[in-house]
Automatic annotation (TrEMBL):
InterPro entries: NS_splicing_regulatory_protein (IPR053246), NSRP1_N (IPR018612). It comes from the Eukaryota. It holds the Pfam family NSRP1_N. Residues 298-381 have a biased composition (Basic and acidic residues). One of its GO terms (biological process) is regulation of alternative mRNA splicing, via spliceosome. Keywords: Coiled coil, Signal. Residues 174-232 form a coiled coil. Residues 50-61 have a biased composition (Acidic residues). Residues 1-21 form the signal peptide. Belongs to the NSRP1 family. Residues 92-208 form the Nuclear speckle splicing regulatory protein 1 N-terminal domain. This is Uncharacterized conserved protein.
């Protein structure tokens, strides 16, 4: 009995030591055994048929290098994850701090809509006024009036040169001037003085500082006007948008019903489910000009802006041509007009001389015809008289 107890004790001690040795090898968490590296299917053998020790060492070295590379890659990934976590936390803290200071700090769309709403309302208010006025006829009439004045000035200079060329030839003659001609000369003199004054002012304002100052002042005034306009019409913003949406939904529903689709509207004339507007196949947006494009106001706004830009450019060109032109250009234009007038007068003079020459030639030919007729008559009478004398004798 004693020997059995001692043997059992030794047996228990052996089991305990084995358990302790196993516990030292285990870790907390999931303990998964690593898979053994598979041996190559075809290993190189020497000529004697035995494994080479150098190949085994190379395999062990390769396995060790792979394990080191994996550990290094794992360390780099962990480092990057730690850094990204720190950056994300910092950004989140800054984001939260900004939201505490201003709850609408990241509401960019609302800010942009508020900025553009004033411009849109102003364009809509001016739309009715602009459509009732002609766009280009005013500029055309002003340009025609300017050309007429330039022609009168050129003619006045031509007459002055002719008087200078005549000299004292008609100095003893009396000069008569009508009241209309006096008014015309005064008007031309006033126009010349006004053009000189405008050119002087334009030359003074050619510096870039004054140009940029004027530009900034105009932009500031426009901004103030837009802000005031926005404050005045801010109350009617939601109402106009709701009415526009109601009209668009109603027309879209009518178009869909004409196409055979079943579209439901609520009490506010709004489409309940916009998927009912879709049809089978590819749903392409309609082109500009159809009822489906009423919701897209961007193209219409761009067209209006382009028309407005073109009209402004025409007005600026005509204003520049009227007031800010160069004196040399004006003189060159006057000389061209004067040259054209002189050429036209020379052509008229040549035409008059040619007509007079033709009339003289016709008169000479007629005179020759009369003289030949008279001589022939005289010869006829002489022959007749001679015959009578012969018969009587």
């Amino acid at each position: 009995m004693r020997s059995l107890t001692i043997s059992n004790l030794f047996h228990y001690c052996g089991l305990l030591s084995t358990a302790l040795s196993l516990s030292t090898q285990m870790k907390f968490g999931l303990n998964v055994r690593k898979k053994a590296q598979p041996r190559p299917m075809f290993s190189r053998r020497n000529q004697l048929g035995q494994d080479d020790d150098d190949d085994e060492q190379e395999d062990e070295q390769q396995q060790q290098n792979q394990q080191n590379a994996k550990k290094q890659h794992r360390a780099i990934v962990n480092q990057q994850l730690g850094q990204s976590t720190k950056v994300t936390k910092k950004v989140a803290e800054q984001h939260a701090k900004a939201l505490e200071e201003d709850a609408n700090i990241f509401d960019y769309d609302a800010v942009y809509d508020d900025l553009k709403e004033a411009e849109r309302l102003k364009r809509e208010a001016q739309k009715g006024v602009d459509t009732k006025k002609p766009k280009y006829i005013k500029a055309f009439l002003e340009a025609a009036e300017t050309r007429k004045k330039d022609r009168l000035m050129a003619e006045e200079k031509k007459i002055a040169r002719e008087r200078e060329a005549e000299g004292e030839m008609y100095a003893d003659k009396e000069v008569f001037m009508t009241e209309a001609f006096k008014k015309q000369k005064e008007e031309l003199k006033r126009i010349e003085e006004e053009e000189k004054r405008r050119e002087e002012e334009a030359n003074k304002k050619k510096k870039m500082t004054s140009f940029y100052r004027q530009l900034l002042n105009e932009k500031g005034n426009e901004r103030q006007e837009l802000e005031q306009y926005l404050k005045m019409h801010k109350g009617s913003k939601s109402k106009s948008e709701a009415e526009l949406k109601e009209v668009v939904d109603t027309e879209l529903a009518q178009q869909a019903r004409r196409e055979g689709k079943d579209v439901m509207l609520n009490d506010n004339n709004e489409i309940v489910d916009r998927r009912q507007l879709l049809g089978a196949g590819l749903n392409v947006r309609p082109k500009f000009g159809s009822l489906g494009s009423l919701a897209d106001k961007g193209a219409q706004e761009r067209q209006r802006e382009y028309d407005e830009y073109k009209r402004k450019k025409v007005e600026e060109y005509e204003a520049k041509r009227r007031g800010g032109g160069d004196q040399a250009e004006r003189e060159r234009y006057s000389r061209e007009i004067e040259k054209q007038m002189m050429e036209s007068k020379a052509k008229e003079r040549e035409e008059e001389e040619r007509k007079q020459k033709e009339m003289a030639e016709k008169a000479a030919a007629k005179r020759t015809t009369d003289e030949s007729a008279m001589s022939a008559r005289e010869r006829y009478l002489a022959r007749k008289k001679q015959k009578l004398e012969q018969t009587s004798s």
